[in-house]
Design a protein that fits this description.
About 25% of the residues lie in helices and about 25% in strands. The protein has about 525 residues and is α+β, with helices and mostly antiparallel strands. The strands form nine sheets. Strands 1, 2, 12, 13, 14, 15 and 28 form a seven-stranded mixed β-sheet that branches. Strands 8, 18, 19, 20, 23, 26 and 27 form a seven-stranded antiparallel β-sheet that branches. Strands 3-4 form a two-stranded antiparallel ribbon.
């Protein structure tokens, strides 16, 4: 069977894109997803993410290249491998970024991507009953709600942030996000709202076909025109699926450059060295890779009720919470990874927030080997400074002609000294908030990095050896109008025909905040662009 449009990847961008393309019934749409259907208890239960994040059945467990800037560490950059992509196992924070992030894209030549132009796409995919209709949608496929059931320490932290000079912000998704807020979360009536909901709600349409457990190995070209996709199923059987109109890659900032390079689009010298025929010499494929980092502050607290550690670390109590969720869709398992979110400037020298803060009513560690989460037994909380717009950039590069081999991922974390200083300033601001009267009743005692780590030299050493990814790789196939851009502002891959990209890789610069919501928006925006040329 021939398809008019093939969407490679059923994740945060591919799901809304394919659903929208299928609406008119005019075109035959195929979605290819390497992972499985996102079925299963822990994929629907919001706090169930900790049970699947490190599971290779549900996640790509790519490890980064170690560098001296990052304590010579290799860390796991877990990404979702299921229908819904990372939205089926992420932290569920719904964040759009600052409006000027998008206006900067537009000012740099990416016409159509200003805040006013992307806002309708954000609204179209969203169902947020509590949101102001000027900024939020009410009838989209993906539910959003305000975080509820939040801990007493979270409520007090909001007050402490205000005592520390951060204003209260009732809606950080209206374009100006500076301030402290309750989180808006991709949870509705106690259930995780994966991007796959857009697909499952559209799947009854006869013109939409979804194939899971089907990995794309390369794009097939007739000259410079993309005409098909070579795929491989879970049993190792290969076939070529033909495409009449366009192929749209939505495999993410790691998967999309990997597939492009194996298809002959990338640095010609690299591809020729691996025996891959060059279809288009595009050296910037896989470059400009950016990711956001956590610098955590972990505290013990004096009141077990102010922390969910006891419920999350005790197997019996956890089982009780799972049963509670199954029956009532209430309790701690309905929570997102953070209760509280904020955006602040690391210094007076910056014009808008460059640090995102997150407060979690629990303390934890993450395994560097597979990303597994361990919740500590002692009552504790975690507050984190997040570097939202890093200056450090890296690469995604294949090093083998075998498409089964995952690429080398070198993000070059903290290779730019400005990133280190921004995180140091963010940590110091968080420490000031934790000293405010509203938090005193909890008797917080900092155990990581520890009260004795105070000098800039010691903080730098700690950050380089302990900072952790927030799992937001982006920008590896950036759009633009210059000769080196991988796509144009209509997301068409330069140098070839009938091939587009619709995922976080097209960002010229990462937005100031979590990336799940922008990925949904990119899928919606891509549907507009594709249909305009249909």
């Amino acid at each position: 069977m021939n398809f008019d449009y093939i969407v490679v990847g059923g994740g945060n961008s591919g799901s809304p894109l394919a659903a929208r393309l299928s609406e008119s019934g005019k075109y035959q749409i195929l979605v290819l997803e390497a992972g499985k259907r996102d079925k299963g208890l822990f994929l629907k239960m919001p706090m169930g993410f900790s049970f699947v994040l490190h599971n290779p059945d549900w996640a790509w467990l790519d490890k980064t290249v170690p560098t001296s800037f990052f304590g010579n560490r290799s860390i796991v950059l877990n990404q979702g491998k299921a229908l819904g992509g990372s939205s089926s196992m992420n932290g569920m924070l719904y964040v759009r970024g600052h409006k000027e992030d998008y206006n900067e894209w537009a000012a740099a030549g990416c016409t159509g991507w200003s805040w006013e132009e992307v806002l309708p796409c954000y609204k179209r995919v969203q169902h947020f009953e509590e949101g102001d209709p000027e900024f939020h949608g009410k009838s989209g496929p993906t539910g959003v709600s305000l975080a509820n059931n939040i801990s007493s320490s979270s409520i007090d932290f909001i007050q402490a942030a205000q005592q520390g000079g951060l204003p209260l912000n009732d809606d950080y998704n209206d374009g100006d996000h500076e301030g402290i807020s309750k989180c808006q979360v991709s949870i509705y009536k106690g259930v995780r709202q994966s991007a796959s909901l857009a697909l499952t709600k559209a799947e009854s349409r006869p013109n939409l076909t979804i194939r899971t457990n089907t990995a794309a190995r390369r794009i097939v070209f007739d000259g410079k025109k993309a005409v098909g996709v070579e795929v491989e199923n879970a049993q190792g059987q290969k076939e070529i699926i033909n495409c009449n109109k366009e192929i749209i890659l939505s495999s993410g900032s790691l998967g999309t450059p990997h597939l492009l390079q194996h298809s002959g689009i990338g640095d010609g010298e690299l591809l020729r060295s691996l025996g891959i025929e060059v279809v288009a010499n595009s050296p910037d494929v896989g470059t400009n890779l950016q990711d956001q980092l956590f610098a955590h502050l972990k505290f013990n607290v004096n009141n077990p009720r102010a922390s969910i550690n006891a419920k999350m670390s005790n197997k019996l109590r956890m089982a009780g919470e799972v049963v509670r969720w199954l029956i009532f869709k209430t309790g701690v398992m309905t929570s997102a990874t953070s209760d509280v979110i904020g955006f602040m400037r690391s210094s007076d020298a910056v014009s808008r927030p460059d640090i995102q803060l997150a407060m979690k009513p629990y303390s934890f560690s993450i395994s560097p080997d597979d990303g597994a989460v361990t919740i500590y037994k002692e009552p504790g909380i975690t507050v984190s400074a997040i570097l939202v717009q890093p200056h450090s950039t890296g690469t995604v590069r294949i090093d083998s002609p075998d498409p089964h081999k995952r690429p080398d991922i070198n993000i070059n974390y903290l290779s730019d000294e400005r990133d280190v200083q921004t995180l140091i300033n963010g940590v110091e601001r968080l420490r000031n908030i934790m000293k405010q009267p509203a938090m005193a009743q909890h008797g917080p005692v900092e155990f990581e990095p520890g009260a004795d780590v105070v000098s800039e030299k010691d903080l730098e050493a700690h950050i380089r050896s302990h900072a952790e990814t927030i799992y937001h790789p982006a920008c590896s196939c950036r759009m633009g109008t210059d000769d080196k851009a991988v796509t144009d502002p209509q997301l068409r891959v330069n140098g070839v025909e009938a091939l587009r990209i619709a995922d976080l890789s097209i960002m010229p610069k990462i937005i100031r905040g979590n990336t799940a919501a922008p990925a949904l928006m990119i899928g919606e925006k891509a549907a507009d662009l594709v249909l305009a040329d249909a």
